[in-house]
Amino acid sequence: MIIPAAVLLFFASAGIVPGAAGRPVDFLLPGSLALAVIASGLVNLGIATAYERSYGVLKRLGGSPLPRWGLIAAKLAAVLALEALQVVLLLAVATAVLGWRAPSEASIGAFVAALLLGTLAFAGLGLLLAGTLRAEATLAVANGLFLGFLMIGGIVLPVDHLPAPLGSIARILPAAALSDALRAALGSAPSPEPASAFLLLAGWGAVMAGLAVRTFRWD
Amino acid sequence: MTAPPALELEGVFKRYGRRTVLAGVSLAVHPGELVAVLGPNGAGKTTAVEILEGYRAADGGTVRILGEDPRRGGTGLKARIGLMLQGGGLDPRSTPRDVLRLYARFHDGARDPAELLATMGLSAAAGTRVRRLSGGERQRLSMALALVGDPEVLILDEPTAGMDPEARRTTRALVAGLRDQGRAVLLTTHDLGDVERLADRVAILHGGRIVAEGPPQELAAGTAARLRFRLARSLEASEAAGLTSAVAAESPGATLAMEAGGAGGAYVVAGADPNPAVVAAVATWCATVSIQIVELRAAAGTIEERYFELTGDEEIGAVA
């Protein structure tokens, strides 16, 4: 819960981010929001589900009248609730502490769309891991990916600043797509090409969710 | 029973790769009946149960619960079935109260969680996290989960495993009560006490097949009844021959054998029905030779013997 907010405050205050134009918070707020989505979907949901699977909780639920979609809907609702809290916290921190104001280009619709698509991608990835790997492996991989995305996902460091081969890879990963999409939605300057970010993000969402559904094992 | 079966396996096959785990298993459980499935580990008990529960698909044959395919039945069918899984499937951080309340929400006609906790003797532990519960308490919670939806059909996988004698007795009484109420109960077990006290019928599963099935007494009687006795001392060869003649005079073809194990002096008469005349022959001979009979048993065989006969399983036993 607090990691994205901590990241936002720390990097904004420490002045580490090379803000191209605009202030650090314009870059960091969308980045922290992306981190919040990743934390909720990949780390939180992924690891919790992995352990539920290893304890046999999912299998037991499978024998009850709760329908499969009911379980998934409940988990999604939990993820979205967690994200909503984090969004409120981050916006509060950005506005109150760092003086952020939404520019006129900001679009609530695009903002929500970016969050939802990002949730699909990262919750999908979390469930993909949880449904196929042993719980300990999911724990390690989810945390590892979280750190990796923090570094190369355009969260605190613009992707342009990454050395060449890493930068090219980073650009097509879902984290960069999400943070770019959020940047576009919040009207951060320089605003990146929004359409490609959203498309890439949607593509990842479809792939992750699809793979998760195909490969999930309840026991 | 004229009611259609509540649970039915017919000619069920299951293979994992090249290994055939179930090779044509047929079994039916009717409402108001309790059937116990007995078998060594690896015999296919768990697989058969998981197929019934709908977790796995059979490769051949039919599976029906309350007339429907458990894999297609949907949530309406699931609401009428109570499962007790091995290992419980409990989240260590949850409490019995939490878990029962949650599962009660899945059913329309659920039993009251507090009442169910009391019935299972878990009221005191209702707020304790599962990871701090004893093995017996976890088993009881697992049983409570099977009961929360007031199901017509119960599938219990080793329901008394790991329980202390008191919990075992309570559970058996509970399960028998459920059967008496007209529900259909299928349970798997390693515990012959469960079989003897609870089962209307027992099916012995071995090597993927049901090798024996019927009321426990019938199965036990299937072992040839024998006269067993223990004398104060072992017999000399000539004495043994004398005793054998005495018994054979009463029941032609009977033979005398030393019972393996024990401290000697233990014998079994094979090939003769242990009727009073045969018993008298043994006793008369012992009187003539002045050898004390320490112990004598003429009962029919036990399920245990029959089970060993059929499976050679080392792990079974009557726990209590």
Description:
The complex is a heterodimer of chains A (219) and B (320). Chain A is mainly alpha-helical and 219 residues long. Chain A has helices spanning 2-14, 24-55, 57-62, 68-97, 108-132, 135-152, 164-172, 174-185, 194-215. Chain A has one domain. The longest helix of chain A is centred in the first third of the chain and has 32 residues, at 24-55. Chain A is globular and about 55 Å long. Chain A starts with a helix and ends with a helix. Chain B is an alpha/beta fold. Chain B contains eleven helices and 13 strands. Chain B has a six-stranded mixed sheet with strand order 5-6-7-3-8-9, with helices on both faces. In chain B, a hairpin with a 7-residue loop joins strand 11 and strand 12. Chain B is elongated. The chains are: A mainly alpha (219), B alpha/beta (320).
Largest interface by Cβ-Cβ < 8 Å: A-B, 16 and 22 residues
Please list the strands of the largest sheet of chain B in the order they lie side by side.
5-6-7-3-8-9
| Strand percentage of chain B | 15-25%
Query: How many helical elements of chain B?
Result: 11
Could you name the CATH homologous superfamily of the domain at 7-80 and 151-221 in chain B?
P-loop containing nucleotide triphosphate hydrolases
Radius of gyration of chain B: 24 Å
What is the CATH class of the domain at 7-80 and 151-221 in chain B?
Answer: Alpha Beta
Low-pLDDT residue spans of chain A: none
Treating each run of at least 4 consecutive H or I residues as one helix, how many helices of chain A?
9
Q: What is the third-level CATH name, the topology of the domain at 7-80 and 151-221 in chain B?
A: Rossmann fold
Largest sheet of chain A: none
Distance between the termini of chain B: 31 Å
Average of pLDDT of chain B: 88
Strand content of chain A: under 5%
Helix content of chain A: over 70%
* Fraction in helix of chain B: 25-40%
Q: Based on helices, strands and strand pairing, what is the structural class of chain B?
A: alpha/beta
Q: Write down the secondary-structure element order of chain B.
A: EEEHEHEHHHEHEHEEHEHEEHEH
Total number of domains of chain A: 1
